[in-house]
Amino acid sequence: MNLKVVVVGSSNTDLIVQVSRLPASGETGLGRKFITTGGGKGANQAIASALSQGKEFTDAIRYANVARVICVTRWGAQPALPTADEIRVFLDTRKCFDTYSHTQYCYNKQKEG
């Protein structure tokens, strides 16, 4: 089966600002670095891709979460989108990806060594 995924719609871009510490609820913080990534759009595309390949919904969500995690660690929107191979490697080498926060935690731990 040779399926292609086409995504048509509005832009969904994540805006990330680096801060020295996590602000308290309601507090305004001063950011040092501003990054735009395709985290949300990458997740949407990854879900569509996974479902078109016949993956179960929960597996498609995990796949999309990993795509989003990879996206937000890179510069730019479209250049940040991971390949299917990058997502597969992430899923194959990390076992604690049941939720977005766990996925992010595992990815950060792997980068730290």
Structural features, described:
With 113 residues, the protein is mainly α. It has one domain (14-19, 29-112). 46% of the residues lie in helices and 9% in strands. The protein is built from four helices and two strands; from the N terminus they run ββαααα. A two-stranded antiparallel sheet has the order 1-2. Helix 1 packs antiparallel against helix 2.
Kindly list the characteristics that best describe this protein.
113 residues, mainly alpha, two-stranded antiparallel ribbon, 4 helices, 9% strand, elongated
Write the layout of secondary structure elements.
Blueprint: E1 14-18, E2 33-37, H1 39-52, H2 57-71, H3 84-93, H4 100-112
Helix pairs in contact: 1-2, 2-3, 2-4
Percent helix among the residues? 40-55%
Report the end-to-end length measured between terminal Cα atoms: 39 Å
Structural category = mainly alpha
Largest sheet: 2 strands, antiparallel
Poorly predicted sequence stretches spanning 5 or more consecutive residues? none
Number of strands: 2
Strand order of the largest sheet: 1-2
Sum up the overall morphology in one term: elongated
As a whole number of angstroms, the C-alpha radius of gyration is 15 Å
Q: Would you list the SSEs in sequence order as H and E?
A: EEHHHH
Compute the average pLDDT: 76
Number of helices: 4
The gist of it:
By secondary structure, the protein is mainly alpha-helical. It is built from four helices and two strands.
